[in-house]
C-alpha cells in the first residue's frame, strides 16, 4: 500500500488513523504545512516492520492465476524513480519539508524494514534515538536541517547498507562513529554541526569535541582569568617598586621628595594669598552682608542684587584669612 500526499497545502497534525494502515509500505507527506509531533503509533505500521508484506497482487480469472506487479513513482535518495517489480521490497517514509516539532520518537526504530527515512527540513529537537541503529536495512537516511543535538549514536555503525546519509545543519557534537559506511560520505553530509573525526579533517579532543572548539573554549576562558591576575600583579609591582620602594630605601630620594612637596605647598600658599589680596581690594566694606547675629551669611548675598558677586567674593576672602591664621 502506498500513500503519497506530497507537495500539497495540508496543515494540522498527522492523524493517528494512519497508524491503522497495517499494509502501508510507502508514506510520503513531504512538502506540506504539517505541524506537531511525529506519532509514536507509527510503530503499528506492520508492513514497515515485517517482511511478510508485499505489493504483488494475484488474480484468478477463469482458472488462470495472473500475477500483477504494480508500479509507482517514489522519491528516494533525493531523486524520483519508478519502481515496479521490486516495489514490494521498497519501504519508505518521507515527512520532509514540513514544520514537525518535538523529538524523533524512539518507537520509529521498530520499523526495521524501512529502506528510506527522510525527516529533513523540520523543527525536530533532542537527540537522535539509538533505536534507529537497529534499522539495519536502511539505505537512505536524511535528518538534515533540523535542531537535533547530542552525538550521532554509536549504533549507526550497524547501518551497513547506507548509500545516502545526511545530518547536516543541526547542532550535533562529538565524534562520528567509526564504520565503513559513515566514513564513506562527503563532508557536506556532516557540515553545519560541531562534529569531528573521519571523514572530516577536524580531529577530536579527549572530550570528543573538535580540537579548535575545545581549545578556543578553554583558552578563551583561561586567557581572560590569567590576564586579569597578571595585570593586577604587574600593577602592584610597578606601583610599589617604581614609586613607594625608592622612598623607603633611598634617603636622598626621600629627602628630595619631601622638599618637592614643601616647595609645591609654598607655591600654592602664595598663589591663594595673592588671590585673597586681590579680592580684598575688589570688595568694599559696603558690600558685606550681615545676618541678624552680626555674622556673615551667604544667604544674605541673594538679597543684594547686583552686589551678590562681590558679597560672595568677600566670604571667600574671610575663608582664606582663616586658612592663613
TrEMBL record:
Q: Which GO terms describe its cellular component?
A: membrane
Q: Which UniProt keywords apply?
A: Glycoprotein, Leucine-rich repeat, Membrane, Receptor, Repeat, Signal, Transmembrane, Transmembrane helix
Top-level taxon of the source organism: Eukaryota
Q: Please name the Pfam families in this protein's record.
A: LRR_1 (PF00560)
Q: How does it sit in the membrane?
A: Single-pass type I membrane protein
Stretches that traverse the bilayer: 227-250
Q: Subcellular localization, per the record? A: Membrane
PANTHER family (UniProt xref):
LRR RECEPTOR-LIKE KINASE, LRR RECEPTOR-LIKE SERINE_THREONINE-PROTEIN KINASE FLS2
Q: Which family does it belong to?
A: Belongs to the RLP family.
Q: What protein name is recorded for this chain?
A: Uncharacterized protein
**What organism does the UniProt record list as the source?**
Gossypium laxum
Amino acid at each position: 500500500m502506498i500513500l503519497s500526499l506530497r507537495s500539497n497545502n495540508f496543515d494540522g497534525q498527522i492523524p493517528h488513523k494512519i497508524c491503522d494502515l497495517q499494509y502501508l509500505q510507502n508514506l510520503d507527506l513531504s512538502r506540506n504545512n504539517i505541524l506537531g509531533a511525529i506519532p509514536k503509533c507509527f510503530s503499528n505500521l506492520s508492513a514497515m516492520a515485517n517482511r511478510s508484506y508485499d505489493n504483488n497482487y494475484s488474480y484468478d480469472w477463469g482458472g488462470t492465476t495472473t500475477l500483477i506487479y504494480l508500479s509507482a513513482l517514489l522519491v528516494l535518495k533525493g531523486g524520483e524513480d519508478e519502481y515496479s517489480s521490486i516495489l514490494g521490497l521498497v519501504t519508505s517514509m518521507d515527512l520532509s519539508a514540513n514544520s514537525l516539532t518535538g523529538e524523533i520518537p524512539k518507537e520509529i526504530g521498530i520499523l526495521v524494514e524501512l529502506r528510506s527515512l527522510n525527516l529533513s527540513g523540520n523543527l525536530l529537537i533532542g537527540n537522535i534515538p539509538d533505536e534507529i541503529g537497529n534499522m539495519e536495512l536502511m539505505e537512505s537516511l536524511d535528518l538534515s536541517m533540523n535542531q537535533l543535538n547530542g552525538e550521532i549514536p554509536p549504533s549507526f555503525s550497524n547501518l551497513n547498507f547506507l548509500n545516502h546519509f545526511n545530518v547536516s545543519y543541526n547542532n550535533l557534537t562529538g565524534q562520528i562513529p567509526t564504520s565503513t559506511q559513515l566514513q564513506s560520505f562527503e563532508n557536506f553530509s556532516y557540515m553545519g554541526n560541531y562534529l569531528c573525526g573521519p571523514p572530516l579533517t577536524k580531529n577530536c579532543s579527549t572530550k570528543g569535541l573538535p580540537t579548535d572548539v575545545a581549545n578556543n573554549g578553554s583558552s578563551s576562558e583561561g586567557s581572560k582569568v590569567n590576564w586579569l591576575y597578571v595585570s593586577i600583579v604587574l600593577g602592584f609591582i610597578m606601583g610599589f617598586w617604581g614609586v613607594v620602594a625608592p622612598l623607603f630605601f633611598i634617603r636622598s630620594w626621600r629627602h628630595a621628595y619631601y622638599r618637592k612637596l614643601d616647595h609645591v605647598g609654598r607655591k600654592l600658599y602664595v598663589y591663594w594669598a595673592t588671590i585673597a589680596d586681590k579680592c580684598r581690594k575688589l570688595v568694599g566694606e559696603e558690600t558685606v552682608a550681615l545676618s541678624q547675629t552680626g555674622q556673615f551669611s551667604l544667604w544674605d548675598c541673594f538679597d543684594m542684587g547686583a552686589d551678590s558677586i562681590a558679597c560672595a567674593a568677600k566670604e571667600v576672602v574671610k575663608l582664606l584669612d582663616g586658612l592663613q591664621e
